[in-house]
Amino acid sequence: MAMLEEDIDWDNCRWIGAAVSSHADDNFVMVARADAVRYQTMRLRREFEVKSQIHRATLYVCGLGQYEATIDGSKVGEDLFTPGWTNYRKTCLYDTYDVTMQLQRTGRHALGILLGNGMYHIEDPGGRYTKFLNSFGPLKAIAQLHLEYATGPTVIVSTNGSWRISPGPITFSHMFAGEDYDARLEARGWDSPGFNDEKWDYAAVLDGPGGKLRGTSVAAPPIRAIEVWNVAKPSKELKEGVAVYDLGQNATMMPLIKVSGAAGSKVRIIPAELINDDGSVNRISCGGGMAYWEYTLAGNDSSRMSETYFPKFWYHASRYLQVERIGSAEGQPLPIVESLQNVIVHSISPPVGQFSCSNDLFNKIYTLIRWAQRSNMWCYMTDCPHRERLGWLEQTHLNGPALRYNFRLDKLFTKTMHDMSDTQSEDGMLTTTAPEYMIFDGWYSEYRNSPEWSSAFLIIAWQQYEFSGDLEPLRLYFDNMVRYVGYLTSRAVDLIVSFGLSDWYDIGPGDPGPSKLTPKGVTGTAFYYQDSLILAKAAKLLGRNEDIAKFEEQAERIRAAFNAKYFNADTNQYATGSQCANAIALVMGLVDPSNESAVLENIVADVEAKGLTAGDVGFRYLLRALAGGNRSDVIFKMVNQSDKPGYGMQLAKGATALTEAWDANPRSSHNHFMLGQITEWFFHDLAGIQSDPEVPGFGKVVIKPTFVGDLTWLKASYDSVHGRVVSEWSRSNDGEVTLTATIPATTTGRVMIPTSASSPAELPASNCREGCMLLKFDGSFAVYEIIKPGTYTFIAPYNA
Q: Is the pTM here over 0.85, yes or no?
């Protein structure tokens, strides 16, 4: 078996690459390469001997920015875009592969590593699109191959100055601008034994970028090809040699093409989410600048032999592909695209949720959001899979439940927690993105540091505990969390935290962006309060007794200051009375219990009068306030429409993945999971699949469905850490509801059925059977206690 992370000795391995010079510039190491174009990508190779009776062979490798490893010309593993993206000055991830089966033959073998730039090195793309420029240094790799034999010592083949290097066939490698691959530069057999590498350079031994080598303990699940769709033919021919393909779905993808033609002829593929009126691609939602894949054919004498190209180090969210065929010279024949396949790529984090109901719009909304979630599941949750690819952190907790109901994300979020810890400064401050590749300063400084974003450090860990019962993130990072809350305390004035972005992308006057309707102090202080409460609860769980009272008392002081500053007793409103301000106060427990119903009434009145105006931050709390106040009818009406900004409008405008703006503004991203919080309502409230807060991680399952609007049936399931939870219900025309609930093994459950029955006598006796009993009846719910796992069916009268 592979060794544990702490047992791996890297002392006899060296980082290797090409000799370079470099200098520091604006917090980044900008690389002045000896031959910048020559080493856009790099091939590294080493031959070695395998003796008989090989017992186990294990490869440990980190190649920066991205790498692909091969043995004897065959790719090692199935993963793409390895290793995961990090702050390379703090953490460099290595991957572990069992390569025993690839080394069964006795004799000479070859190990090859191909390097590309990834997020590690973003240089000026020379007229093509980029979001920013930065560099952690030149291309480099470190690796060790352990050859364990049935008898005798283990042989280790490691990176050092004896390796050979050469430029790769990828002549342009840029995470925002694209990838250019020149097949004429392929060195056939370069990663196989017997290749003549005498003209290749020897590798230079380099310093690493500074980060500690870490393995799976802080790594996200790998990226792989998830689906392959055939694309039959272009949807539109713009002119000779230029055609546009409609893939039918906006998704994170890479093209797989088969082409033929003369040497030097090219196929350029330009991805986009939108098209212009003339049918050409429109990249405005992807940043506006040009980006593409370009394949230059190797050709052959007949110009008819097919060549296949699948990119190595660049992906993009695409609904449309503009394919341009370019001859080797003016007047020369154009290459032929024989086939094009759409390869959908993202994290292998497993799907765990399913949802469908009688409302077709809701089903389409669920699918719309799920595609955006899938497309942004990378080695961290990206905001969008094209123009930024940054880990904006507010989305990870505001959409935390919505994401976790659909996918098992414990490992991915564990990496996010580590990424955040790598960004924390000495004063405790945490950034809005992690890893931090783009430093916002000057006028944009609040984009770097905002409580609603950085509080993800505490909230992600708490949500992980709620969904899986996993205390480890809270235990591991508790002291870091205390430092962050201490930072908020240092910024607070009279316990009010008034900096940050507040309710980003709310619907108010002017262009979308920082909040128009909610003061910064409302959201900043609310998260300061919630963070303090989380610390108090975590301290109790972790046995940090001295911290419990400290943070409980701090939270209560913040609560008092918040109400003194923002609550208007005459109107029962908070601050401006925005949907975000009132909802966040209500959900976080900042509202005095005597005022809760009045604040809820104000929220309802505002939604009914104006429709949806809450943005990125406020929307989740608006949903939680309404659902928690038994007003899911308001949510139903708000979402079940297509005329006002919202999900329905996005679908009506042709979106196939959730967009960044409520109105599907073409200048905003069209593959953005940010506003997908309604998925939580689908599972938690409509299906009623919940975990008893006293037994986290679904150790005790609660099924508490909501019957609302014109919904006549619903089916949902969630694969908890204990097994599958199912909630299925239907309503008949004669006022009867049937609910089927599945409680997984090793758990117990409680089923709470809304009913119009006036007494328990009106409930069928068949509802109770072995393992299930009627616990109580309160006039609106029949509550059944389930002590034996299994599937149970309940019938109850229900007249809305």
A: yes
